[in-house]
Amino acid sequence: MKFPYSWLKRHINIDMDAAELSDMLTMSGTKVEGVSYPPVLKGLVVAEIIEVSKHPNADKLSLCRIDTGGREITVVCGAKNMKNGDKVVFAPAGTVLPCGTKLKKAVIRGVESGGMLCSEDELGLGKDHSGIIILQDSADTGSDASEYLGIDTVFELEVTPNRPDCLSVMGVAREVAAVKNMELLKQDFSLNESDIKASNCFSVRIEDKNRCPFYSARIIKGASVGESPNWLKNYLKSSGIRPINNIVDVTNFILLDMGHPLHAFDMSLLKGKSIFVRPAKKNEKITTIDGVERKLDETVLIIADEKGPVALAGVMGGRDSEISANTKDVLLESAYFNPADIRNTSKRFALTSESSYRFERGADIGIVVKALDRAAAMISELAGGMVLKAVLKDGAQERENPVISCRVEKANKLMGIQLSTNEICDIFRRLEIEVLSEDRDIIKIKAPTFRPDITEEADLFEEIARIYGYDSIDENLPESKIVGDGNYLETDIVEKMGESLRASGCSETMSFSFISARDLENCGFSKGNALKIKNPQNEELLYLRTSILPGMMKTLSYNLNRDAKNLKLYEFGRIYFPSRENDSGSSEILTLGVALTGFRYDSRWIEGSQNVNFFDIKGVIENVLDSLGIKNAEYDLHNSVTFKKGNAAFIKIAGVPVGSMGELDKDFCRRYGIEQTVFYCELDVSETMKYYNRLKKHIPFSMFPAVKRDIALILDEDLTYREVLKAAEKEKTGLIENIEVFDLYKGRQIPENKKSLGISVTYRSENSTLTDKEVDELHNKLVNRWVKELKCSIRDF
Amino acid sequence: MDKNLEAIKQASLEDIRKAEDLKKLDSARIRYLGKKGKISALMELLKNLPASEKPLFGKELNSVKNDIQSAIERKRKSLEDKEQNTSVSGFLDVTMPGIARRTGAVHPITQTINEIIAVFRRMGFSIADGPDVETEFNNFDALNTPANHPSRDIQDTFYLENGNLLRTQTSPVQIRIMKKVKPPVRIIAPGRVYRNDTPDATHGHTFHQIEGLYVDKNVSLADLKGVLHSSARQILGNDIKIRFRPHFFPFTEPSVEYDFSCVICKGKGCKVCKNSGWLEISGAGMVDPRVYKNVGYDPDEYTGYAFGMGIERIAMIKFGIDDLRLLYENDIRFLRNLK
Hints:
- The complex is a heterodimer.
- By secondary structure, chain A is α+β, with helices and mostly antiparallel strands.
- Chain A folds into 6 domains: 2-38 and 153-180, Phenylalanyl-tRNA Synthetase, Chain B, domain 1; 45-148, CATH 2.40.50.140; 193-395, Phenylalanyl-trna Synthetase, Chain B, domain 3 (Phenylalanyl-tRNA Synthetase, Chain B, domain 3, 3-Layer(bba) Sandwich); 403-468, Phenylalanyl-tRNA Synthetase, Chain B, domain 1, CATH 3.30.56.10; 489-689, BirA Bifunctional Protein, domain 2, CATH 3.30.930.10; 707-794, Ferrodoxin-fold anticodon-binding domain (Alpha-Beta Plaits, 2-Layer Sandwich).
- Helices cover 26% and strands 28% of the residues of chain A.
- In chain A, α5 packs across α6 (246-258), α6 (246-258) packs antiparallel against α9 and α13 runs antiparallel to α17.
- The relative contact order of chain B is 0.10.
- In chain B, α1 (3-18) runs parallel beside α4 (54-85), α3 packs antiparallel against α4 and α5 packs across α10.
- Chain B has 2 domains: 3-88, no CATH class; 108-337, BirA Bifunctional Protein, domain 2.
- By secondary structure, chain B is of the alpha+beta class.
- The mean pLDDT of chain B is 89.
- In chain B, 42% of the residues lie in helices and 19% in strands.
- The chains are: A alpha+beta, B alpha+beta.
- At the A-B interface, α7, α10, α12, α13 and β28 of A face α5, β1, β2, β4 and β5 of B.
C-alpha cells in the first residue's frame, strides 16, 4: 500500500515530519516499509510549445520553440511525444537536476539549446523516459512547474492480512487519529441526481446471497470519457496505479481513498436491462480486461448480464464491457462479496487485483453505498453526465458484528500493564469501537464494520496494547519454577560427537533434505520407501532423503570442482522414511554422514603425501564412539551398491547394526562427477545414542612393572584380527594387560594368501613383578594357542 | 682373544657404526645376535669345546656379545634421537607450519543454533522436538490458520503424496508439546522448516527456526519482552536494542514482530537495515486462546507467550553473510573461514 503524504493530509490535520509519522505507524502496527522523499527541484518552468520543427543537422532530434512566460527560447529535444501548444516542463540553463548535473547552454549539432525539456526519468519522478512530460493544458505558462508534478513524500506500508481497513488512505488516517487522539476531517461531496429513476431502466439481482450479501449500482448517463486532471493522475501514479481515463481513475481513487473496490461498466455494451450476481455455469467463458479468456464453472462467482458473464465478481471486469473512449453511459458497481469466494476465484485463475486483494481480506460493508455515491459524484464532476436517481440494490447492507466482553483485569494481567476501565474505554472510543456497557471489570463492545478482524476478547487485548504502545510496556524477567528435566541429552550427545569429528579434522556441512529420483537409484534405494513431494520445485527436490550420502556427494563434488581436493566433512541430519506408526506418516532418523578424500595429513612436509584409506574413516568413527563411551562396537565386511566390493564394513553395537563405512564405489562416485577415491561412513545417531555411556568409571591399575613380548604371526589372509584377539581372550590368566598390533605385512618372504601380523603383548600382574621365566611361560602358552587355533605359524627373522 | 672372535667383534662394530637407520641396525643385530647369527653360531660351537677351553672362550664370547649388544643399544638411541630431530637438525626454521592436525569447522547455522540454545537453557527452557513432516492439523488448523489461508497454497507449502506436509514453521511443536504436557510448559524447539520460496539471496526453500513457548499462570507480554531482550543481549551483545511492533499471526494475540537495532550501522541506518536502523528478526506474541482450546488448555487459567526466531537471519547478521545461499553451498573456504 503506497500513498503520498498530501493525500493523507486530506483526511487528517497533521504536521509531523515523515520520519516521525513513519515511526508512529510502524509502532502501532502498520509497518512503514519505505519512505521515498521527493527530489529537490528548483527553477523548473511551465513552458508552452510554439512550434516543433526538425533539427537541420540530426534526424533524431527536434527543435522546439517555446514560450517560457514572455520569453521565447529554442530548445533541442530528442523526444517525439510533443506537439504545438503542449505545456511542458522546461529546465533553463543553470538548473541543477536531481542527479547533480548542472545544465549549461550547449550547442547541439550546430544549434544552440537554451535548456532542456524534461522527462520523468530526468527529474527523478519515475522511470519513464519514453518522452517528455506533458502537463495539463491549464498549467500557467511561466509559473513554477513543480506545482504540477505531484512532487510529494510517498509512504509504502506493509499491511498485515488481518487489517484490510488499512488498505486505504482513510484507514491509515484512522490509525493516526486513534494513536494521536484526533478527529478525521469530513470528506464532503454533493451528489446531484437527475429526476429520472435508475430503476426505470435497469435492475440488479443477487442469486446467491451467501456469496454476495449486498450489491448496489448507479447509472451515470452522458459522461464524456477523457483524461483525468493532473492531481488525480499524480495521486494514482504515486500510489503505483497507472491512470487510464477519468471514469476508471475515479474508481481507483475511491479504492485507494476509502478502501472500497468499485467497477464501472460501459452500459451500452451490457446485454439486456439487468445485472445478475450468480455462480457461473459450466462451460461459460469470459475474457477479462487483461485479455485472457477464462473458462468458468459453478465455483466461480460472476457478474452477468442477460446473455452471460461480464465480470469475475470482485476480481476483474470483462473486456467486452470495459470503459472506452466512446463510453457515454456508465453502470457503476459497488458491492460486498464473501471473502472466501473472491479468494477462490483469485486462486483459481492465479489472478490478483487491487480489488480482489481487498475483498478477500474483508471489505467494509458499511461504506458500500457511500463509496458508490462519492464515486458517482466525482464522475459527474470530472466527466460530466447525469446521475440517475436512487441506488439500484439487492441484498442487505448489514453485518452484525458480535458483542464482545473485555475483562479489564485479564487485559492488564496478560500484558503486564495497569490501565483503568476508563482508560481502556477511551482507547476503544479512539478506535471507533462502540462501548455498549461498562462496569468495573467488564466492558462490552461492538467493533465497527471496517474491523472484521475483531471477533474475540484477545483481539481487543491487542488493540489495547498497540494503542497504549508496546514501547510503554515494562520488561519483566519471570520468576520461574524449574520445569522438566531440560531434555538436552540428544543435543549434548550430538555436540560431543561433533567435537570428536572436528578434532579428527572434519568440518560440518549442511545440505537439503530433498533428493532426486536419480539419487535414490544411485544409492540403490527403492522409491517406494521414500516420501515423495507432491509439488516439488524441481526434479532435484522430489523426494525426502533416505540417506545423507547424496547431499554429501554434491558437497564433495562442489568443492572438488573448486580445487579443494583434500576434504574431511561431516553432516548431521534427519533422513525420512514412510511410517504408519506416527501421525506425521514419517519416521525421521537423526543420521551422521562422514566423508574423507585426498591427503591424510595437513602437514605433508613432514608426514608425507599419503592418501586417506579405510582405517582413517574407521579411526574417525572409533573416536566418535569413544566420545560417547561406547567400547563394544564390532565391524563386519559389508557389501552394498554404494561401496567398492570387499572394501566396506558394517558397524554394530551390541549386535545391532548402526551404520556402515568404506570406500565408495568408483562408478557411484562418477555419477556425481567425482574421480578421486572417497571414504564414507553413515551412522544412525538415534540408534547409536541408545548406547551412550554417561557413567565413566575408574579402573584401578597395577603398581607393578609390565613386560612386553613381540611376535609376528603368519596367518591366512582372511583371518581377522578379531579372531586373534578372541583366541587370546581364552587365556584366562588375567595377566595379559594389552595386545597391540604393530605391523601388517604382505609380500616378499610371506607366502601367497598369507599375511604377517606383528603383535606386541603386554603382561602385568596386579600382585607382583613378573619374572622373565613367568612371562616366557605365559607367552609360550599364548603363542601355542594361536598356532593351534588359528593354524598360523611364527615368522622367523 | 680368539682371532676369529676378534674379527667378528670388529666387523660387527663396523656394521653397527655404518648403520644409518634403525632398519639397517636391526639387520646388523640379526646378523650377529639373531638365532642364526654369528655369535649364536659361536655359542653352539662353545658347547663342543673341551672343558678346559670352555671357561675362557665362554667369557670372551659373552664379553663380545655384551659389547655388540651395548653398541647396538647406543646406536639405536642415537638413531632414534636423530630420527626425532631429522627436521630440526642444524638450523631450526621456526616459521615452518606446525604439524598438529587442523581441527574441523562448525557450520555457522549450528553455531547460531547452539548459541541460542545455550542462552535459553540458562533461562530454564527445556528442549522439544517435532517431525519435519507434519500433519496439516498441527501446522495450520491447530494454530488457528483458516482453511483458505494463502500460506496453505501449494505455492507456499510443500505437500507430500501421503497427504501430510513439510512444516512451514516450528510452531507445530507447540501443539505437540501442549497436547502431551500440562502447564507449566517452557520449551524451545530448534528445527528445519520448509517453504515453497524460490531461492535467492534472502530466500530459500529450506531454513531453520527456533520456537519458544512458555505457558503458565500469569505469564504476560511484559515477560515476553524481558526474555527476548535478555536473549538478544546475550546473543549479540549488551548494546543491542530491541523493538516490539504490533503484527499479525493467526496463533498469537496480541502479536508482535521484534527487531534488533542494526548491528552493522549501530542504528544509524545502512544498506543492510534499509536505512531504518532496525533488523527484523522474527515474530512472537501471547498464545491465542483459540490455540489453547485446540490442545485442551483452559484459556482462563493459563496464559503464555510463543516466539520464533529465524536462524539464518541471525546467522547472516552475526557473521555478515550477504547471501543466504552460501549457507547451503558448503564451500569449504566459507566453512573454514567462519570456524
